[in-house]
Amino acid sequence: MTSLPIISIAGLNSENPAIRSATAAELGKACREVGFFYAIDHGIAEQVMAGAFSNAKSFFELPLETKQSLSIKLSPHDRGYVAMADEKLNPDAGADMKEAFNIGTDFPADHPDVLAGKPFRGVNFWPTVEGWRADMLGYYQACLNLGRLIHRGFAIDLGLAENFFDAHLNEPIATLRMLRYPASDEHGAREDAGAGTHTDYGNLTLLATDKVAGLQVATRQGQWIDAPHIPGAFVCNIGDCLMRWCNDTYVSTPHRVKAPEQERYSLAFFLSVDPDSMVDPRDVVPTEQPKYPPISCGDYLAYRLNATYDHRVETDAT
Length: 318
Prior knowledge:
The structure is a single chain. It contains eight helices and 14 strands. By secondary structure, it is α+β, with helices and mostly antiparallel strands. The protein has a single domain, classed as Jelly Rolls (Sandwich). A hairpin with a 5-residue loop joins strand 8 and strand 9. Monomer. GO terms for molecular function: 2-oxoglutarate oxygenase/decarboxylase (ethylene-forming) activity; metal ion binding.
């Protein structure tokens, strides 16, 4: 394999079950074989994506002191600013040379789950940039809707009821992460200096990229292939939580970001399910011996995130 499959998502909106099934089969083939695919014809306008990139750039251009006042270290719920070299996706390789900013579901401070201190149910941090909050929440919602649609394709392909995942995606753990990678002359030339080799933790990632190269995906044969920018397309991949849920029917694939030759921006939307949803392979592939014990989505993600940052994400057990 030298390139990732390109899949038109429009078929999942068809009223014809045969067309929906055909699109779902394409998704399933990609998820079984490489775990990555490009999604096109997804319904999110290019100008909306371009606006989100513009907003991300305006955030990262803020003074460091301003960004640090919104630090993820001040949030037990995985929200806020991640400073350069604060994250180690591959601890053995060293710190990642990137900065990031995370937003999640926009819960108000008086929401019952926020008041109860439930994991991943905190308030967002917002920069004081005019129109920024509304624009980014609009993009967040568009990605959430697309993620829910793609999960319907997964359900069809896995032989489940088409709406199987709907009940788990009411108020899911979903993070929109803006990322900035400095040009490679700002740091060393390590192959994965931008983002260390890793797999994603949740169910599904929707990644929008700019035109600067960087993302690479590992094939089953152990080769690294580039995932270049395709205008208007999302680079999508499944994560470890969905792989666990479907008992390794789908495969979560290692990937990395090389040190870019020039400044690089990307927008990653990480979609999991509701924090209390039980991830149990017996519900998805009941005919197989489960390889993993049941675990709530919230507990699983907290376990994974706490290995990545130098602060803790709260769980029900803390």
